[in-house]
Amino acid sequence: MEWRGGQAQLAALLQARPDDLWAGAAAGALAARVRPPDLALIPDAGAPNALRVRAAAARFGVDLVAAHSSHAHDASLLVQVPLVVHRRNHRPPGHAWKYRRAASVIAVSEFVAALCRRAGIARVAVVHDGADGWPRPARPPNPEPVFLVPAALVAHKGHAALLEAFKAVPGILELAGEGPLRAELEALARPLGARVRFLGRVLDMGEAFGRADVVVLPSRDEAGGSVLIEAMASGVPVVASAVGGIPELVGEAGALVRPDDRRGWVDALNAAPGRDSGPGRIQAARFSVAAMVRGTEQVYRA
After folding, report:
1. Which fold does the domain 5-131+289-301 belong to in CATH?
2. How far is CA 40 from CA 22, 75, 133, in A?
3. What is the C-alpha to C-alpha distance for residues 79 and 102, in angstroms, rounded to an integer?
4. Is the separation of the CB atoms in 122 and 104 below 8 Å?
5. Residue 40: other Cβ atoms inside 10 A
């Protein structure tokens, strides 16, 4: 079951707002990790789901509907109450008319908000993702630095370029995530031997963060990058691509590199282990889960 940044943010909202009703897939990751949906939707069933959501909104007397994905957005187009759409995609929105129907659009970054406004969507608010850190247990130093990449194995996450750069970086590279490119990336990693570890889908990221000396996000495109907040809040230095919404989150607290700058990646990765974690913790405090919940609720109440 897929579990990415969007699901984590929705889970945090549901935990902070336990009286909210939620509609979604009964067999989805959110149902398994948080609680079953109050209204089970049929996967990939546009019109039937839209009718079910409209009827449920009327039956339960809801004040507002918040759509957290493109499928949820489609399922919410018939509701007769204010609609807030969460947008966390690094691509320009298609079918902009759907967004103009919304009372507001919550963009996950200023980068995404600008894409929305260029598409003619006027009512856009920015609420960055929120994440809290993991405890870092006392442990002896790793014999060699461990670099953790917590990202799905898909093309825009940039693993292939990172593997090429890692040939000039001593240490261990751990890839936490699954995706359709696993076999291709395993082939690219073969020359690096045991220095690259494919962890697959990791349910306990706290253990992975506790083991890591550096967290790396080499994305070619990225709407936000909440995993970087999580890393900085945990006291782990970060190295990430200077694309999309990432610079908004990292600021001056981590190393930012252009995706195609191999020399820049090599230098940044070699310099990262042992870097002072204080600036990262200070930066991450701006993007706590509590701050995300407050910002979201302000838009809901507007």
Report:
1. Rossmann fold (3.40.50)
2. 9, 12, 32
3. 10
4. no
5. 15
Q: Do domains 5-131+289-301 and 146-286 have the same CATH topology?
A: yes
- Residues near 253 by Cβ (< 8 Å), separated by ≥ 6? 232, 238, 279, 280, 282, 283, 284
Domain boundaries, the chain: 5-131+289-301, 146-286
Output the CA torsion sign for 285, 228, 104, 72.
Answer: negative
Tell me how far apart the alpha carbons of residues 206 and 245 are, in angstroms, rounded to a whole number.
Answer: 24
DSSP bridge pairs for 216? 239
Q: What is the C-alpha to C-alpha distance for residues 239 and 149, in angstroms, rounded to an integer?
A: 10
pLDDT in tens, 29-73: 888 888 999 999 988 888 899 999 999 999 999 999 999 999 999
Residue 256 dihedral angles phi and psi, to the nearest 5°: -115, 130
Q: How far apart are CA 91 and CA 223, in angstroms?
A: 8
